[in-house]
Design brief:
Chain lengths: 684, 130
């Protein structure tokens, strides 16, 4: 069977299980006896085993089989999960993640060597079993056979010589049967429907305890040889059988032609090692190459609620086409405006509804819960904390909020960077925490909530907070601000200095995020999404980072502004409001213009000047000012006029225009006009 | 008439694979039709009542309600239901428990399409007699 078509599904489903395992281990690290987590972990490992065996990924099946085995021991309550076990579990997940990544990238699994790892797992299992033996009576004592209520009364379990009058039956389950005992048991049960089984070897108990090779002898009364042959011949995976006389009956052909059986999944028993060493580092994951696949619940689910999987690239094409459709609809509306054609109006209204509905549905498909980004963060925090010898837990709230996948993709690196800063710098050593009356274990809270078209994500730590004097000194030293500026700077402005380019240097490349980024990269990443980043820090109490990002970036609402004969677009998520002011209300100080809004001095930027167009501020008596939020400040952008609001699709600037940093992209209006979208972060 | 099949497994991957095994195959003159899929035992029992399928493939290890518990409930509804357990290696005792509880047969992961069909055909022959 061609398995390649199942690959994507295998990868995405295996990843879900691996995430599940990760969550379980994190729970077990807190409570080594959490039965729910142990059971769930067992189940996840079991599912991965079944899936990978079906795909022919023997090594993945083997590793998950060992994890399952280990969990089975803990499931029986024979021992408690301790830190070394947690480490071995985590390292097993890492192995599996890397293997799944290799599968995704069509790389070979042959390069993975899990012998050492399996030996570790085995030594844990052996260690627990050894403890048990010392506590319990010797295992070689023959077990007492309990009266099992599932054994039918009419099957005698003794193995004495066949009683006279019965028909002797011997059968052997096919050697390629993976579970010969169960197969033999099934055959015995079927024979039992024909008559009374007098004796059976091995005993039912032996079969049930897996202690048989699939070869069974029995004596049965109350039936005839041909019925016995019929029944045995109809048992799948039946090998040779003898009924009555000692003539060997070949097994009848199975109904469809059986294919040659592959070797069963290998199950080596490696040499136990004396003690669980620190888990070996798994090999690095190969880069995934295939495009991500999205699982989509079809809107009109069939009788069994079937789902389909399509690539995100195809999905993005849909979104772009819907965007074009919206723009074209706008153009059509403009053309018919004032045409006084009731029919055209009807058709346009209908088109409006249809396109609106289509957009709504397509957007649903593009949305994913924040959880897709945050689910791996507890593990990230745990690893960072362990490396730094700290105790930190991460609590996530609001992970169910759905956002545009394009936004989610841009959130992962910033969140990890902020968390790394928090764990490395914000959170104190345990000793220092205790001295200042804090709990030994630090808390980071990620809280997400929706506010209109924006999602707010707060990351709060309870660490020492930022040292404002140090920040100022460093900023002066790096030449980011002058000494005089530092002296008059407010606390709010001071913390934001960490986002200035050049502030954070020598950023180490860590193995957590994979690449070193400074806070300036974090901030510009968030802002290029049309979002904002704010930092509030309280000495001794901790720091809160607040990211505000738009729900979607597929279709953006923009404010159209006029400047001379040109038209520009400003993303509405940035706009606070627009005001009109007489030129006399403008204040000037040191060559800069300001406007008083709500008793605050707001610096003014002339769009004309920023874009190097001719003219002067005093050209207009009445100034139109768009108040926008840029890098945490409110500034006023002076334009000639406001032309309206529109939903647009932003097209990125491609070569050779990609160097135009003042613009985040272009859009085409319904009437065909091309309008640049301003990137305020780069302009102000 | 088609042979109604219900597939119970918590992994969509597995459900798809089993479903594909029946694709385009026939039992005598009859097509197989996968009428329902369920991802846990509770759903399996509900969908069994709704569709009354001719054949059920039932995973053993599932969240919410295990395959064996679901099997027992289905046997309460219809003692003749054709339930085939899907097991993984090393689950002999669970398989035998399922057989005691009324499962007609079992298949072992990794599945080979021919073996799965073989088990299904034998059971159908047994119960339908053609």
């Amino acid at each position: 069977m061609d398995m390649s078509k199942y690959k994507d599904l295998f990868v995405s489903e295996a990843r879900e299980h691996l995430q599940g395992i990760n969550d379980c281990i994190l729970n077990l690290e807190k409570d080594g006896q959490a039965a729910d987590s142990i059971n769930e972990l067992f189940r996840h490992a079991h599912s991965i085993k079944g899936m990978s065996a079906s795909m022919g990924f023997g090594i993945i099946a083997q590793l998950s089989h060992h994890l399952e085995d280990m969990m089975d021991i803990f499931r029986q309550g024979k021992a408690q999960i301790t830190t070394p076990v947690v480490d071995v579990l985590f390292s097993g997940v890492d192995y599996l993640e890397n293997m799944v990544a290799a599968v995704e990238g069509d790389s070979s699994l042959d390069d993975f060597n899990i012998d050492q790892y399996i030996a570790q797992v085995q030594s844990i299992i052996d260690g627990i079993s050894a403890d048990e033996i010392t506590q319990e009576p010797p295992a070689d004592k023959p077990p007492e056979i309990p009266e099992s209520d599932t054994v039918p009364d009419d099957i005698k379990t003794e193995t004495e010589a066949p009683a006279s009058g019965g028909i002797p039956v011997t059968f052997k389950v096919s050697e390629d049967s993976l579970v010969p005992c169960a197969r033999a048991y099934l055959a015995v049960k079927r024979l039992e429907t024909l008559g009374e089984i007098r004796s059976v070897t091995p005993s039912i108990e032996e079969m049930k305890s897996g202690n048989c090779e699939g070869e069974v002898s029995l004596v049965i009364t109350g039936t005839d040889t041909s019925s016995l042959q019929d029944v045995l011949g109809n048992v799948p995976e039946m090998g040779e059988f003898i009924v009555g006389s000692p003539t060997l009956e070949p097994a009848p052909e199975p109904v469809p032609d059986p294919a040659p059986e592959p070797a069963p999944a290998p199950d080596p028993a490696p040499e136990p090692v004396p003690a669980p060493d620190p888990a070996p580092e798994p090999p690095p994951a190969p880069e995934p190459v295939s495009p991500p696949v999205s699982q989509v619940k079809a809107a009109t689910a069939g009788p069994s609620g079937k789902t389909v999987r399509i690539s995100t690239a195809l999905l993005d094409t849909f979104i772009n086409l819907v965007g074009e459709l919206i723009v074209t609809k706008g153009r059509l509306k403009e053309l018919y405006q004032g045409a006084e054609s009731p029919v055209a109006e009807q058709v346009l209204t209908r088109l409006d509804h249809l396109v609106g509905g289509l957009y709504g549905e397509v957007m649903k498909v593009r949305m994913d819960p924040l959880d897709t980004v945050t689910q791996r963060l507890p593990r990230v925090v745990r690893d960072l904390a362990r490396k730094g010898g700290k105790e930190v837990s991460l609590e996530v709230e609001g992970a169910e909020i759905e956002l545009d996948r394009a936004v989610l993709e841009e959130l992962s690196d910033p969140l990890i960077h902020i968390l790394r800063n928090a764990v490395d710098h914000g959170i104190e050593e345990a000793g220092e925490r205790i001295k200042t009356g804090k709990s030994k274990s630090a808390q980071i809270k990620l809280r997400a909530y929706r506010e209109r078209d924006m999602v707010h994500i707060e990351l709060m730590d309870d660490g020492r907070g930022m040292n404002l004097e140090k920040i100022k000194a460093k900023a002066v030293e790096k030449g980011i601000i002058t000494k005089n500026q530092a002296e008059v700077m407010s606390d709010e402005e001071t913390v934001m200095l960490v986002c200035r380019p050049g502030f954070s240097t020598a950023e180490k490349v860590t193995d957590v995020s994979g690449r070193g980024v400074g806070m300036d990269v974090v901030q510009s990443g968030i802002e290029s999404l049309g979002g904002t980043l704010a930092i509030i820090s309280r000495t001794g109490e901790g720091t809160t980072f607040t990211l505000k990002v738009p729900l979607t970036v597929a279709i953006v609402k923009i404010l159209l502004v006029n400047l001379q004969e040109h038209l520009f677009a400003i993303p509405i998520t940035r706009v606070i409001r627009t005001v009109r002011k007489e030129i006399e209300q403008i204040k000037e100080s040191q060559g800069r213009y300001y406007l008083t809004i709500d008793e605050e001095l707001v610096p003014l930027y002339e769009l004309r000047e920023m874009l190097a167009l001719p003219g002067a501020l005093s050209d207009n008596q009445l100034l139109t000012v768009v108040l926008v939020e840029v890098t945490n400040r409110i500034v006023g952008i002076v334009v000639d006029d406001i032309s309206g609001q529109e939903d647009i699709v932003v097209k990125p600037l491609c070569y050779p225009l990609h160097h135009l940093e003042r613009y985040s992209g272009m859009t085409v209006l319904g009437d065909g006009r091309i309008v640049p979208v301003l990137d305020l972060g780069h302009l102000v | 008439m088609a042979i109604k099949v219900m597939i119970v497994d918590d992994a969509m991957f597995m459900r798809n694979m089993i479903s594909d095994i029946f694709q385009g195959k026939k039992f005598g003159e009859e097509d197989y039709e996968v009428v329902a899929e369920a991802e846990n035992g509770i759903e399996a029992v509900e969908k069994y009542k709704e569709h009354m399928p001719d054949v059920i493939t039932m995973d053993i290890v599932m969240p919410e309600m295990t395959g064996i518990e679901a099997l027992k409930e289905i046997m309460q509804i219809n003692a003749d239901a054709n339930v085939i357990m899907c097991s993984a290696l090393g689950q002999d005792s669970l398989v035998m428990e399922a057989l005691d509880s009324g499962a007609k047969d079992f298949i072992v992961k990794p599945f080979q399409p021919e073996k799965v069909l073989d088990v299904v055909v034998r059971i159908l022959k047994d119960t339908r007699g053609n």
